Amino acid sequence: MGQSRTGDETPHRLGIAGLGVTSAAYLQTLTASDAVVITAVADLDAARARSVAAGLPFARVMTVAELLTADEVDTVLNLTTPASHAEIALGAIAQGKQVYGEKPLAVTLAEGRSILAAATHAGVRVGSAPDTVLGTGIQTARAAIDDGLIGRPVAASAVMVTAGHELWHPNPDDHYREGGGPLFDMGPYYITALIHLLGPIRSVTGASSRPQDHRVIRTGPRAGESIPVLVDTHVTGVLEHDSGALSTITMSFDAAATVRSPLEVYGTEGTLAVGDPDTFDAPTGLRRAHDGSFHPLDPLAGYVDGTRGIGLVDQIRAPRRTAARANGGLALHVLDVMESLQRAASEGRRVDITTAADRPASVPLTPRAEWLGAVHEGRRV
């Protein structure tokens, strides 16, 4: 299975822009799936692009500009740095191509709106990570909520506390620039999960801080180098969902760890302890009022053994008039929430969310062999 171009089911043609660390996880999924065939790759490091292409039987090495205009590319997978997300997405859309990108959709809400407006005008789809929320972890928690196992959900908490990327990343600069920081780096996982669990968000309040103006790289050839911190590195807030549920969120690069569950959902009859939304299959625990402790739930829903790229496969497989689960409208809503939370923190006030989003369709429990299967949608090779 994977990279096949024979038979009646012709895979969707994919070009990948950006072949850094993140691309390895996507390639694991996409080369195993009959839904796509990778026909082009591009990276600023030409040697890296050639190395990746050597393992892909139908891929040609191109520049990014060439990839955006290539006839053999139906969808552009945008794995470049956040600052380039909007430029490349708009370039692909201008050529009539679909786009799926890494999170965040863009570094500003204005850029995100321009991407969605261009896609609507061109009649093409836009999708965006994170797709970890489509795995059995978050989807099992969602099924438990939808099945009434905790009664009426009234609140949730989302907590991510960790030391900074400079401790392990040899080039952590982007994590401390616009489009980085804990909110934009990790917030999309947590906020997207909260929307899957409790629905879209209508307003936010918050506060934030920047305890350190510089960070010192601790590993790699730049060890000892000091880099500036240009964004707040501890952000906390309250998200008011359309349903009336209230979520609290804490995103921090300023402490070692936390003992809290990454996500907890509180209902009138029980509580869910939900695992890391940056993974696909973290276990979910349920405790009701009469229970003495949490007990694990068996997987109830989601793509089994999901890996990065399943959101793109889901987008390709979705009928043309059906929204994919990791769709651009949802990503724009998440971007709006994050930007509004920053504004609420800086201005000390409640900020209304100006975008709307539908709660994505739930994912039935789907075996890996099934979601890796070929598709009938999309243009032919």
From TrEMBL:
Gene3D superfamilies: Dihydrodipicolinate Reductase, domain 2, NAD(P)-binding Rossmann-like Domain. One of its GO terms (molecular function) is nucleotide binding. It comes from the Bacteria. Residues 13-127 form the Gfo/Idh/MocA-like oxidoreductase N-terminal domain. InterPro entries: Gfo/Idh/MocA-like_OxRdtase_N, Gfo/Idh/MocA_oxidrdct_glycsds, GFO_IDH_MocA-like_dom, NAD(P)-bd_dom_sf. It holds the Pfam family GFO_IDH_MocA. Residues 138-272 form the GFO/IDH/MocA-like oxidoreductase domain. Keywords: NAD, Oxidoreductase. This is Oxidoreductase. It comes from Cryobacterium zongtaii.
